[in-house]
Write a structure and sequence with these properties.
Radius of gyration: 20 Å
Oligomer: single chain
Protein name: YeeE/YedE family protein
Structural class: mainly alpha
Family: Belongs to the TsuA/YedE (TC 9.B.102) family.
Strand order of the largest sheet: 1-2
Distance between the termini: 7 Å
Number of strands: 2
Order of helices and strands: HHHHHEHHHHEHHHHHHHHH
Number of domains: 1
Keywords: Cell inner membrane, Cell membrane, Membrane, Transmembrane, Transmembrane helix, Transport
Largest sheet: 2 strands, antiparallel
Subcellular location: Cell inner membrane
Mean pLDDT: 91
Transmembrane segments: 27-47, 53-73, 94-116, 122-140, 160-179, 199-223, 244-267, 318-337, 349-372, 384-404
Low-confidence stretches: 1-20, 412-416
């Protein structure tokens, strides 16, 4: 990643211009995207509470940022696991450092913009987390993107990611059906917050977190010095203020923006950014419509109201729609929106990857966003464990990817 190319969205398109300039903006698509976004915002403003249109705007900004920086998690893990390139992982550490700095006072005070309670994403550590994060790590390498990467690649028109998203929903729904078994039927050590479970407090937990992020930056630099992996090539970009609208953005810039937007999400809805709970909701509603007794699943106990109301009342759903629309606007503004080719191998990988990610996310109490990004930002130990185990899943997936015609970076390769 002079940017992290999540799922290598439009990889050939980035290389089409030898002078590294962007294609001509697809103005009609930009206009359509703005109209759809405005209609959805107005609809939410008149039918839902005030937070929903605000969350749509946050989602738009998240999607716009993700696409313009090609900021991802799948390729970051893959490049470090395969050849030792840690550029994107260092951007993750910057993002997390900014996030914990912003989350600490918000969680310590515990109040949102609208007077509600602000709570972190704190989840249990046990067999469910280990199995789920490992499956997710494998799945994102086969499916071509993580949770956020799938959404923004769909917004960018990458055809195979529509398949990944569909089976992501299926896997998440099956995971919700099995949730009670994994959470209550397997060993667990309970939830651990570095801030509230250890006596460190938020300031002490912040210091420990910053030291860890610094160590990871040093560690990745040391690995790079030893392995001397290729650097990642620049994405096509324009100069001046137009770069804000048309990209590409530096990884570090995107890291800071994503952390700030996550903190604003926490202040707006009372919890940080997440993705996959909405996918479980969408699939469960379909299953409910088919006559399956979804309300009896342990996952929905205490929250059956969500099954009875519109999906537009769900804050994570609105964020997801915003991410897709934001990525669509960013890709069209850069002249990069176009559907890509499908074949048997990449469709098969997308099906398997989507199922593994959806199922794994439910078992692991979140994905690369809800568990890894927001979990660590919330000082939850499960977020750190999620990242380590997902990296282990990535290592295994490197041996499986070639079976589906998917590339694995080599030391001699250059990165686009």
């Amino acid at each position: 990643m002079a940017t992290s190319v999540e799922a290598q969205a439009q990889p050939q398109q980035s290389a089409e211009k030898s002078n590294s300039s962007l294609n001509k903006a697809q103005t009609p698509l930009v206009v359509c995207g703005l109209i759809v976004s405005a209609i959805l915002a107005i609809f939410l403003a008149f039918t839902q509470d005030v937070t929903q249109p605000l969350l749509l705007i946050i989602g738009l900004l998240l999607g716009y940022t993700l696409f313009h920086a090609r900021f991802g998690f799948t390729s970051a893990f893959r490049r470090f696991a395969s050849v030792g390139n840690g550029q994107a992982l260092r951007a993750h550490m910057v993002m997390l450092a900014v996030a914990v700095t912003l989350f600490a006072p918000i969680l310590a005070i515990g109040v949102t913009f609208f007077g509600g309670e602000a709570t972190g994403n704190i989840a249990p550590i046990g067999v469910s987390l280990i199995v789920g994060s490992f499956l997710f790590g494998m799945g994102m390498q086969l499916g071509g993107g993580c949770a956020s990467g799938t959404l923004y690649a769909v917004g960018g028109g990458r055809s195979v990611m529509f398949i990944t998203l569909l089976f992501f929903i299926v896997g998440s729904t099956v995971g919700a059906a099995h949730f009670d078994f994994w959470v209550n039927g397997t060993p667990s050590f309970g939830s651990v917050s570095l801030a509230t479970s250890t006596g460190l407090g938020y300031f002490g937990a912040w210091i420990v977190s910053i030291l860890f992020f610094g160590f990871m930056i040093w560690f990745t630099l040391r690995i790079e010095k030893k392995k001397n992996p290729p650097k990642m090539a620049d994405l096509p970009k324009t100069a001046g203020w137009k770069r804000i609208l048309r990209g590409s953005w530096p990884l570090i810039t995107a890291a800071v923006v994503l952390a700030v937007l996550n903190a604003i999400t926490l202040l707006t809805r009372g919890s940080g950014w997440g993705v996959t709970s909405a996918l479980a909701l969408w699939g469960s509603k379909v299953a409910d419509g088919m006559g399956i007794d979804v309300a009896s699943w342990g996952y929905w106990q205490g929250n059956t109201e969500a099954l009875q109301t519109t999906i537009f009342a769900d804050t994570t759903t609105v964020l997801n729609f915003g991410v897709i629309l934001g990525a669509f606007l960013a890709s069209a503004a850069g002249g990069l929106f176009r559907f890509t080719n499908l074949n048997v191998k990449n469709v098969t990988a997308a099906v398997i990857g989507g199922l593994l990610m959806g199922y794994g996310a439910r078992l692991a109490f979140g994905c690369n966003i809800g568990a890894y990004f927001t979990g660590i930002a919330s000082f939850s130990l499960h977020g750190y464990i999620w990242g380590i185990v997902a990296m282990a899943g990535t290592f295994l997936a490197l041996f499986i990817r070639p079976l589906f015609g998917l590339s694995v970076p080599k030391s001699k390769d250059s990165f686009c």
